[in-house]
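One such given next:
>
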Amino acid sequence: MTITSASERRLDRPGTSGLRATFFGVWFVDLVATVLFFTVPYAYELNPVTVFLYDLFGLAGVVLAALIYAGFVIGIGYVLSRPLDVGFVVSVVVLYALFASNNVVLLVSREPLLAPIVP
């Protein structure tokens, strides 16, 4: 029986370095778009945690919220074993890309890419 201590166990980084770089790229675009949401009168942030932190700390709260979200994603990716970690990070990248592209289109054209369905 082999016992390994916590210092001997190494956590595997989730996905490949390119996938992690893609995650941070779309995360950064989403962060910039979210910060801009608080500076333009025609768009607003829907995430209540981000709004709460903005009310507490201003724009620094928006950055703090984004850092917390990225920390959760990276932390979960470290905990999951392969291939679940790769699938998880890929799905987060796809969602971030969708949300960030919607946010950028909304800021540029004042019309969202994905409009909510309201009866």
About this structure: The mean pLDDT is 79. Residues 18 and 24 are 10 Å apart (CA to CA). The two ends are 63 Å apart (CA to CA). The longest helix spans residues 84-109.
